[in-house]
Write a structure and sequence with these properties.
Length: 554
């Protein structure tokens, strides 16, 4: 399936410790022509750098830092303030909403010139965070309180609208070959769910006609994570990728398109025919585990997401209380092919993978426990064991091998040149996929990067993120390089492009060239400063009020 473009959300990080300092070479320093207290935004290609307030916009040239234009919303659209603003990178535009003239009005402005392209006041209850750009249909799909509206991105005119959809449209999937949009609107409030008869709607829309092709009803209430349930706003969505559409990670709902089927994960797994919307099969499945007295706490990241192959799918099943098993199903019929029980009532199975015809189950992992204690809600992360790997024959379900118990944790697994790599607290292992025997191991105390957290591939090398640094190994387990950095963050460290890794700690961000381990620069956090990593990691942006700087990363 070809991708369609989502609007790009800017993640600006603000920190509260240390002194502001960067060793990156400066490309330019500049200032917005306003106070820039609403948006500090740089497009991914660094063509535009945008600073906004609720009253005005300033845009800089990303290459030189020189001002392109500055206008007030009064100059742009005849309104004093814009209450909701969104930069749409795919169309090089700024969209904003104002209700100063009465009804809500949406405006579209060209980022290059600052000229208004169009405006429209025919839409109600629009949130620009719930907007999808679909290039092949030349339109925006705007999710709002009453349904979904399609807007021509060049003129702002309505191309079609689907109303009367109960619940929240939280998941979407676009099928480019059919020019078809599938949306899933579900209930996140128990009282409203009861009022609607526990009705959730899976709807297919033909984007050639902007008409409903089919509408299937799914009964139930979406599960919201316990901690998030106290403050969750159903319009607070985050982008999670093309095939899964948009939706909050705090809601245990998912939507996938696999061949000629639409698969919905909500209180189980259901498959619908893509052409008709008819239910094909349904199986029991649950992503969360009860913990504590009468389910006073829930454990997340403890159950593997369904694993799909061309003709089958595999589940880690916890449906029978304390009994666990691995199950294989036929994807056409939903028929159970085999089930293999797993002993030990305390185990969790957070990941399944198929490697060279073998089904690998990860036992134990890093989990999120959420619940209520002493009238207070809590959310905490911890390593939950026991830890190890189990391998199963994908044809019969027979257990073919299992590792000895790992030390105190287990990372994700990955394959590099037919070796299966995994790490526990103190060692990196290469495992023979055929029999589970260790080909070699490396003691992490020699690398001095702390306890293991995460593994990822860099061409023919395996890179390990430890609690106190980063280490790269070749396929034979020989250490290529190591980088020391205390208290690294697994959540905010990441790879950019093909050869850049940004290592985040409590105090600073360090840019690294993955092929050599060379440090390219570092930034020490300070309260009130924000940063952005752009251009596949080649540019580092730093913001402070109206001040903005661009740095080389090379």
């Amino acid at each position: 399936m070809l991708k369609f473009s989502f609007f790009t959300i800017l993640f600006t990080f603000l920190f509260n410790c240390g002194q502001s300092q960067t060793t990156f070479p400066i490309q330019w320093e500049s200032k917005f022509e306003n106070d820039a207290d609403y948006w500090h935004y740089t497009t991914d290609n660094v063509k535009y750098v945008i600073g906004t307030t609720k009253k005005e916009v300033s845009v800089l040239n990303g290459e030189s830092g020189k001002p392109l234009w500055k206008k007030s919303f009064l100059e742009l659209a005849g309104v004093k303030e814009a209450k909701d603003q969104q930069i749409i990178e795919e169309t090089n535009t700024l969209l904003f909403i104002s209700n100063q003239k009465g009804p809500e009005e949406i405006f579209c402005v060209d980022l290059e010139t600052g000229n208004k392209i169009w405006s429209n006041n025919q839409f109600k209850n629009i949130n620009l965070g719930n907007l999808i750009f679909i290039p092949s249909a030349n339109c925006y799909a705007v999710i709002h309180k009453n349904g979904i509206t399609f807007i021509d991105y060049l003129t702002g005119k309505e191309k079609g609208s689907i109303g009367g959809i109960p619940g929240v449209i939280g998941k979407t999937a676009y099928i480019s070959s059919l020019n078809q949009l599938v949306i899933f609107a579900y209930q996140v409030n128990s009282l409203k769910a009861l009022g609607s008869g526990l009705q959730n709607n899976l709807i297919s829309i033909d984007l050639n006609t902007f008409k409903v092709k089919w509408n299937s009803i799914i009964k139930g209430v979406a599960e919201i994570k316990k901690f998030a349930g106290k403050s969750f706003s159903p319009i607070n969505w985050a982008t999670v990728g093309i095939e899964k559409g948009i939706g909050s990670s705090n809601i245990l709902v998912d939507l996938l398109v696999r061949g000629d089927k639409v698969i919905v994960m909500m209180n189980g797994l259901k498959a619908f025919d893509l052409s008709s919307g008819n239910l094909i099969w349904a199986v029991d499945f649950d992503l969360s585990l009860d913990r504590g007295l009468v389910g006073s706490a829930q454990m997340y990241n403890a159950v593997a997401e369904p694993l799909f192959s061309k003709n089958h799918f595999y589940l880690a099943s916890f449906e029978r209380g304390r009994d666990k098993s691995i199950k294989k199903y036929d994807i056409e019929t939903g028929k159970l092919i085999w089930e293999t029980p797993i002993n030990n009532r305390k185990i969790i199975i957070p990941n399944l993978s198929i490697i060279n015809g073998t089904l690998i189950a990860q036992i134990g992992g890093y989990v999120n426990l959420q619940g209520e204690e002493n009238n207070n809600y809590f959310s905490k992360w911890k390593w939950e064991g026991p830890f190890g790997l189990k391998a199963f024959d994908i044809e019969t379900g027979k257990l073919t091998w299992e590792t000895e118990k790992f030390d105190d944790r287990i990372t994700n697994t990955l394959v590099n040149n037919n070796n299966l790599f995994v790490a526990d607290e103190n060692n990196l292992y290469a495992i023979n996929i055929n029999n589970g025997e260790k080909k070699f191991s490396y003691a992490l105390n020699s690398a001095k990067v702390g306890k293991s957290q995460y593994l990822f591939n860099d061409l023919d090398n395996v890179v390990l993120l430890g609690e106190d640094g980063l280490a790269s190994f070749n396929n034979n387990g020989n250490l290529k390089y190591k980088i020391s950095a205390k208290n690294t963050s697994m959540n905010s460290s990441d790879k950019y492009g093909e050869n850049y890794y940004y290592l985040s700690t409590d105090d600073e961000m360090i840019a690294i060239e993955l092929s050599s381990g060379k440090e390219l620069g570092r930034y020490t956090y300070k309260k009130g400063y924000g940063y952005g990593i752009k251009n596949s990691g080649k540019s580092f942006m730093l913001y402070k009020d109206e001040k903005v700087s661009r740095f080389f990363v090379k």
